[in-house]
Amino acid sequence: MSEWPIKTIAECASPEPYSTQIGPFGKALMAKEYTVSGVPVLRGVNVNAGRFYDDGFVFISEEKADELAKYESYPGDVLLVHKGTLGEIGLMPESRKHSRYIMGNSMMRVRCDRAKLLPEYLYYWLTSSDGQHYLFSRVSQVGVPQLQRPLTTLREAAFPVPPLPQQRRIAHILGTLDDKIELNRRMNRTLEAIARAIFKSWFIDFDPVIDNAILNGKPIPDEFAERAEVRREILARSQPSPPTPLPEVEGRNYRGGFGFAGLVEKARELRRKETPAEEILWELLRDRRLLDLKFRRQHQIGDYVADFYCHERELVIELDGGIHRTREAKDAKRDAYMQTLGLTVLRIPNADVLENPDGVLSRIMEVVQLSPSPSGRGGGEGVASYRHLFPDSFQDSPPRQDPEGMGGPSCR
Predict the structure, then answer these.
(1) Angle CA 308–260–325, to nearest 5
(2) What is the pTM of this model?
(3) Fewer Cβ neighbours under 10 Å: the N or C end of the chain?
(4) Helix locations, 218-275, DSSP H
């Protein structure tokens, strides 16, 4: 690392005009010019904790955006907040909701000369302890915290610049770690939401107690009568599934009633190489975690491999990444084939799973509740296996005997 040359951002910036640029100031962009729609204006809220948030915008008209064209941000730009929430760094992504973005007055950007410097490498240096120390050592404490001479400070930032292959490896390793951290954070949020839903089901709605009372013919208090009707409908659909029918053709492997056509290894490979979105959704669906339904992942149906399949509800779930925009005709043919088999196909963008897993679960539950269950299974809310832990009436239950070998005072 000591052999890497030290260069400034100005030396590594793109030779095009305005490659290092601060946002408009003064009367160039005023709050009265904001509109309800149009071209989004980038602010500090859109760059937070190293991530670019593609929402929460204020907007300006297309005509005003044309006037401020030199402040426009393009994919690959490194974005910095120089006033207010200092130290926040982000990258303008390739995939974004809007075609144009204009920097607000608290933003700066760097457009790198990619023959010298990768924007991902610069991003990670600016977010490092060295980069943050450089920025915060040049902060004015008068009034709103802001960088002194922000554009000059940005251009004069000096840092080690390795050869491009090493920059690429560094950015790849750190990017992979960042993606895993973000994935874990989103999974934690989803698991917390699931825990809240289970807590509400058990200890606020008393679903297991109501279920036991219904199954044992015990009276239910009037205040739980409405909830009891809902649970009766769910329990009526929660009958055991019949065995999966096997085809009559011999000498071939089958699963779920569909014939394999040499795609077994492909399905296994897809499971090993699942995307972050597939990993999250599988954690939410596996082991009958959603409505007590059995889901399979990377399941072969005819000559296709479905991302997720529920035989009990004849439901196929496909997660679509950016590549699916270029293969709409193939996807339509695939969906049409599955629909001829009586299957419902639900397509969900990867971004929805990553950004709003609760909303995705709600969409799946809407489809599941609307579609009849051919096997009679799948209406429960995932509490059937715990029903024995709850009383079968609303009367006070006698204290239970401790299981053998569990007689310590902490168990009473």
Answers:
(1) 45
(2) 0.57
(3) N
(4) 225-237, 264-272
